[in-house]
Amino acid sequence: MGDKVRVTGTVAEFGTAPNTITQLSSVSNVTVISTGNPLPTPATVTLPVTNINDLERFEGMRVTFPQTLTVTENFNLARFGELQLSADGRRFQPTEFIDPNDNPRSGTNFTGNSNVAAVTAQQDLNNRRAIILDDGLSGQNVATVPFLNSQNTRRVGDTVTGLTGVLDQRFGTYRVQPTGTVTFTDTNPRPTTPPNVGAANLKVGSFNLLNYFTTLNDGTNKTGPNNNLDPRGANNITEFNRQRDKTATTISQLNADILGLIELENNGTTAIADLVNAVNTKLGGNVYTFITDPAGYTTVAGGDDAIKVGFIYKPSVVTPIGASLTTNDPSFFQSGRAPVAQTFQVNSNGAVFTPIINHFKSKGGTGTGVNADQGDGQGQFNFQRRQQAQAVVNFINNVVIPTSGDPDVLVLGDLNAYGEEDPVDLFRANGFVDLIDLFDGDNISYSFVFQGQSGRLDHALATSSLQSQVTGAKEWAINADEPRFLDYNLEFKNGAGGNTPDFFNSDNPFRTSDHDPVLVGLNLAGPTSSNTVTVRTLGAGSQVTGSNNSEQIV
Asked: Full-prediction pTM beyond 0.70?
């Protein structure tokens, strides 16, 4: 840098419109006029721009962003040396805090589009306040991952101020190629302990495991109840051992008394027993055991997928009451996962409640008709997820509560719907309380990052009778904010298709999965005892003194 040159050639646009970069082609002469010149003063760019195309005039120029920018995406950090940055803090999915049907968002309509314009406007703003920070290299999976801190990570939520570099346009987006060292602030440090959920006598959680399969995904094996589905987890035994060890670390540190599991291989008890054994080995005793599938689980709609949901629990703390339950609703659970409900009794005081673990239809794929993307910010298959929510409500009212005899129910799991989307609104409209929203107050929560936008796919919703017994609810932010190259996979690491260094560490919980686990604190009140007081003769002015329990006078 610092050379002053004269270049003769033809001005042209390289690439496919509208995502092109201006270049000189057919260069016939390059003359160095002088060297050692000071670099020109960078042009100032402030985000958000009024229009994305406003950045075109800065293409190829040295620019500076005087404001503080926040890391909003690190998915391709090791692969391509990229971070997505954003002005004005983290970018959230618009439907995490804007309801497509209601303004204010406290409304509980779960159909309609009266507020879609606000969702669309927020998405447009999100697009205009983001920029890609590139590493200036054309190689992939290089030996030195850029922009890392001393812990070999760069979390979503970290910040940089005064970023300076050359503005470029490649691969369909504008990006900055830095001309010097980029210094980040660890604004979002790793949370080394699970969240504090208050003075609870029981901790209940949920955790999407990112496909925990004991059947290796090596291209030859099949799995599922009918042994006709492809496995989705580790590709070889080395990867699986890494996944198992790190998952066991995370579960042991989360320390929930009851934990709902999501994306567990649907191969009977094999995968869940394997995981429980790993956790117990980590803890040095038989701390956890598991709930078996409901009777006929693999024959109900949604019970024959490659993945399923399930529960593990501490028998020293709770005891299951009766068998686990599920529901058979073909309109709901095809292309979904059948839920599992289990009633538990707290050993210390006899309190009873029922958690239900769920995994609704994803936003991936291409829906048709009512399941197509309706342009309201809720993505594909929103109609089906809404049906699933209604089916769970019906299941609770018609089966779970009549079976348990207790109204305290906790809905957990990956609903594949953000906080203000229709499925969550349907639960609210039916009297369920969104616990994470309740305890986070004015903060916007998240458990997942997708395409540079954070949002809450993993939920905890309580019946009104249970709400008063909840002491706290929060995500443990150990996964969504971390770059994916820290996970158990070996692809592209240390010569396996690339030279990315392997910073995997099974002794910490960070990037065990792509979802953050959720933890809920409960202070469940046990049943009051009933005493009988026999009074033979009462004279005038006599008194009967009882206890704090229910009394019956005979």
From this structure: yes
